[in-house]
Amino acid sequence: MNDSQVGFIGLGLIGGSVAKAIKAKYPNTKITAYDPNTKSIHFARQEGVVDTIAASIDDAFSCCDFIFLCAPVSYNITYLTSLKAVIKPECILTDVGSVKTSIHEKVIELELEENFIGGHPMAGSEKTGYENSVSHLIENAYYVLTPSSKISEDKIMHYIDYVETLGSIPIVLDYKEHDYVTAAISHLPHIIASSLVNFVEKKDSSEKIMKNMAAGGFKDITRIASSSPTMWQQICLTNKENISLLLNDYIEELSHFKDLIDSACENDLYHIFDDAREYRNSIANSSLGPIKKIYELYCDIIDEAGGIATIATILASNNISIKNIGIIHNREFVEGALRIEFYDEDSSKRAFALLVKYSYHIYER
Ligand SMILES: NC(=O)C1=CN([C@@H]2O[C@H](COP(=O)(O)OP(=O)(O)OC[C@H]3O[C@@H](n4cnc5c(N)ncnc54)[C@H](O)[C@@H]3O)[C@@H](O)[C@H]2O)C=CC1
Ligand SMILES: O=C(O)C(=O)Cc1ccc(O)cc1
């Protein structure tokens, strides 16, 4: 894989980050890239990330083993026809787009299924452009792969291996399922964030009191409203059915919430917040990206002085570093349990064996 030739069409936040991850892992890879932003693509060549700048989708891409389409989703689709004319038969054609059905449909129409595996790294941020790209962006992040029905097992396995060696965690999904899932966990939240920001702006006074007082909670749930408008416009247009369906159900949920407030239903209101807190607390947290693999263990612990220190000492004296540690209480662990997070899988496995040896009761989730 170290001598591969790799093509990029679009070299912004995600394209740039994948290209940097490839160069970091496989320095001999030759990267050919096309991006209408000439300033950033020249900068990428100066930095040594790009070897050849392509002026269009032409023969420059004919020797590529992998080609990554990394422009906004609708633009990616427009390149498939010209790529079909230049790629070699072994080429794995992939994309990083947030929506998969629209590109798969075009791939089927163009009979490119023997080459195409859809891709979606579940990592990113509200930032845009090559200047914000970093080699570690996709590290430890789930990377969804949606292989075409006619692509060979060999190509799928080769691509899974490639993604894994770049530090991501590949998951294979059907492209339609991918679009329903991402509509709920990614597209709907972006719509809610942007509409809430616009709503507050409309409701604010001329002195901008709301804007000036907006605190942590508002900022936490609206960070993603700073994302690229073109990218999100295209996601809404290409995943229309799923988003509309879920938005409809969500509006009903909000309407039910309003009814409970209007009729002052104390118990129901309490339960809505309690259920949400419970479910939210059960979702693994990570500062590195939206969906990352977490290496964690839960340990029953007697509520006595020095309990946490004893465990920390056992782990430290065996050279196991702890990333995060703390007591949690919820329905699953009514009496409280110690949650210990590690930096990697090996540390988590070694800690498990060690704590079991010391007769602790350990759970994995
Ligand atoms: N931003 C995020 O957090 C994530 C984005 N994605 C997907 O990655 C893709 C790229 O998004 P970002 O890198 O975030 O956006 P970006 O705005 O940082 O980069 C897009 C790049 O595409 C280039 N571009 C624009 N029009 C083009 C065209 N017609 N032909 C070729 N290149 C063109 C731009 O010059 C820019 O360099 C999108 O399809 C998006 O759905 C996937 C995962 C996360
Ligand atoms: O910044 C965040 O929290 C994101 O949600 C980033 C993101 C944006 C689009 C995707 O398709 C995947 C991830």
UniProtKB/TrEMBL annotation:
Q: What class of enzyme is it?
A: oxidoreductase
Catalytic activity, per the record?
A: prephenate + NAD(+) = 3-(4-hydroxyphenyl)pyruvate + CO2 + NADH
Describe which pathway this protein belongs to, using the record's wording: Amino-acid biosynthesis; L-tyrosine biosynthesis; (4-hydroxyphenyl)pyruvate from prephenate (NAD(+) route): step 1/1
Q: What EC number(s) are associated with this protein in UniProt?
A: 1.3.1.12
KW Nucleotide-binding (keyword) present: no
Keywords assigned by UniProt? Answer: Amino-acid biosynthesis, Aromatic amino acid biosynthesis, NAD, Oxidoreductase, Tyrosine biosynthesis
Write down the PROSITE patterns for this protein, in alphabetical order: PDH_ADH
Return one GO MF term. Answer: prephenate dehydrogenase (NADP+) activity
All copies of domain Prephenate/arogenate dehydrogenase, residue ranges:
4-291
What does the record list as GO biological process?
Answer: tyrosine biosynthetic process
Q: Which Gene3D superfamilies match?
A: 6-phosphogluconate dehydrogenase C-terminal like domain, NAD(P)-binding Rossmann-like Domain
Could you tell me the superkingdom of the organism this chain comes from?
Bacteria
Q: Is Flavoprotein set as a keyword in this record?
A: no
Stated family: Belongs to the prephenate/arogenate dehydrogenase family.
PANTHER family according to UniProt: PREPHENATE DEHYDROGENASE (PTHR21363), PREPHENATE DEHYDROGENASE [NADP(+)] (PTHR21363:SF0)
Give the protein name, as stated in the record.
Prephenate dehydrogenase
The scientific name of the source species is Lachnotalea glycerini
Lineage of the species this protein comes from: Bacteria, Bacillati, Bacillota, Clostridia, Lachnospirales
